[in-house]
Design brief:
mainly alpha, globular
């Protein structure tokens, strides 16, 4: 165990504990108030990019790995992802989907678990995971554009 050297180190350590306690994937997936895109848009949750900027790349990848491990366990598949597949997928999520917020992860994982992205055929792998993320991002982008237009018209009146 390393001893924090500065006040900033102590603050970062406290923020990490805060994320791991208050934004625990199992807790968010099971009892979240995030059930649709509008709630995601209104959420003040941090993005993956902000977490990475504030707490570092290593912590962020580890945090995304926790999400993927939770998904792997909840799906109870015959051929779940291996540790190396989870690590690889986490790295790609951090690199490619950095603009997603914690509320996005909650909604996305709820959609995966409820079967909205199709049958998994008893296996999970990096291409499937990244496909889910891409589908979600495409849906989110389209709905965000529509939501933005509605808000614009609403304020214009």
């Amino acid at each position: 165990m390393t001893i924090p050297k500065t006040k900033q180190d102590i603050q970062i350590s406290s923020r990490k504990k805060f994320y791991l306690t208050n934004y625990k994937p199992a807790k968010l997936i099971a009892s979240s108030n995030i059930k649709n895109y509008e709630e995601v848009f209104q959420s003040k949750d941090d993005s993956i990019a902000k977490i990475k900027r504030d707490l570092g790349d290593s912590f962020t990848k580890g945090y995304i790995k926790i999400w993927l491990i939770e998904l792997n366990e909840l799906l109870n598949l015959r051929r779940p992802m291996t540790e190396s597949q989870i690590t690889f997928s986490a790295q790609l999520v951090v690199d490619e989907f950095f603009n997603l917020k914690i509320s996005d992860l909650t909604l996305l994982f709820r959609k995966i678990l409820s079967g909205q992205y199709g049958e998994l055929y008893e296996s999970l792998n990096p291409p499937k995971i990244l496909g889910f993320f891409r589908s979600y991002l495409n849906e989110r982008t389209a709905i965000a554009a529509e939501y933005s237009m509605q808000q614009h018209l609403k304020h214009k009146q």
